[in-house]
Design brief:
This protein is α+β, with helices and mostly antiparallel strands. The chain contains twelve helices and nine strands. The strands form two sheets. The chain has a seven-stranded mixed sheet, sandwiched between helices. A two-stranded antiparallel sheet has the order 2-3. Strand 6 and strand 7 form a beta hairpin. Helix 1 runs parallel beside helix 4, helix 2 runs antiparallel to helix 4 and helix 5 packs across helix 11. The longest helix has 38 residues. 3,4-dihydroxyphenylalanine binds next to strand 8 and strand 9.
């Protein structure tokens, strides 16, 4: 029996040294209830009373040695696994990090802010009005009665006969004049709608910025000076402006206003389509009927107004040739601003 115990010990210690030993399997095989050592101990009944304690003690020693070796091996494996992992997951704190991508303002928002700054610098305040508007503010109060042909060019989306999506920012003029008495100096940027099909120059949703000044003694030269200052700040000091006679029902006289092409300076190029000028807005002296509709006496007060397309100005400013680019959220486009 002694030899048997000796054999078990040697075999176990040898197996525990093997590179690929399975410690758990060895524990079961040598020390488990059905293990080899237990089998030997079961056979102790056949021993003489003198032999029993000797063999018993030896068996305990063998068990202790195998256990110690097993524990050591398990600890060794744990340490090795930890070291392997540490080596594998080594962190190089000197490596450059992954930059997180930051968004930025949309080109339209940027242009709008820039325009607001320019007008605020001239003493204007920002006024807001609803996008869902009454027919009265969008048309009637602006001297565009039912059946007026101007309604055709500004066909919009109707909620009811009486309520629509505003086709221009001009209704804000009326809302401001109803509430405020002169002097008035406001701009009003915002979304407008028209039932136009989407193409390179049209969109059913776009943006305008309205301007309105009402006070005693306001003349067309105030309008010209204001727009010239704006154009120079927005497009560069060399910029010139040009007024062309036009018709808007809510202004009299009315004009369309062009700026000299900031790319070619007026010689004619691709951006201005050979014209040398780019149309950016409509303007005029507020029609006396409109002042009257808002409770302002046209005998005492006069005013000017203008309305420009934000997309128009932004496209001109940055040389963008397709309005759809503003709404598609294509990063290749947006990243350029
Ligand atoms: N609301 C006009 C449009 O959408 C633009 C405009 C023209 C606004 C003349 C004005 C103005 O305030 O005076 O076509």
């Amino acid at each position: 029996m002694k030899e048997k115990l000796q054999q078990i010990k040697e075999a176990a210690l040898l197996e525990l040294k093997a590179a690929d030993c399975d410690t758990e399997a060895l524990r079961v095989r040598y020390l488990g209830k059905k293990g080899e050592l237990t089998a030997v101990l079961r056979g102790m009944g056949a021993l003489t009373p003198e032999e029993r304690p000797v063999i018993g003690q030896m068996a305990n020693e063998v068990r202790a040695e195998i256990e110690a070796a097993l524990t050591a091996r398990v600890a060794e494996e744990k340490e090795k696994a930890l070291n392997d992992r540490l080596a594998r997951e080594k962190l190089d704190v000197t490596m450059p990090g992954t930059p997180s991508r930051m968004g930025h303002q949309h080109p339209l928002t940027r242009a709008q802010r820039e325009m607001e700054e320019i007008f605020i610098g001239m003493g204007f305040e920002i006024a807001e009005g609803p996008e869902v508007e009454y027919d009265y503010y969008n048309f009637k109060a602006l001297n565009i009665p039912e059946n007026h042909p101007a309604r055709d060019t500004q066909d919009t989306f109707y909620i009811t006969d009486n309520i629509l999506l505003r086709s221009q920012t001009s209704p804000v003029q009326v809302r401001v004049m109803e509430k405020q008495s002169p002097p008035i100096r406001v701009i009003s940027p915002g979304r407008v709608y028209r039932s136009d099909a989407l193409d390179a120059t049209h969109s059913p949703l776009f943006h305008q910025m309205e301007g309105l000044v009402v006070d005693k003694g306001i003349t067309m030269s105030d309008l010209k000076g204001t727009l010239e200052t704006f154009a120079k700040k927005m497009f560069g000091e060399e910029t010139k402006i040009r007024f062309r006679p036009h018709h808007f029902p809510f202004t009299e006289p009315s004009a369309e206003v062009d700026v000299s092409c900031f790319v070619c300076g007026g010689k004619g190029c691709r951006v201005c389509k050979g014209e040398g000028w780019i149309e950016i807005l409509g303007a005029g002296m507020v029609h006396p009927f409109v002042l009257e509709n808002c409770g302002i006496d046209p005998e005492v007060y006069s005013g000017f107004a203008f309305g420009m397309g934000l997309e128009r100005v932004t496209m001109t400013r940055y040389g963008i040739d397709d309005i759809r680019l503003f709404y598609e959220n294509d990063e290749r486009f947006l990243k350029q601003f």
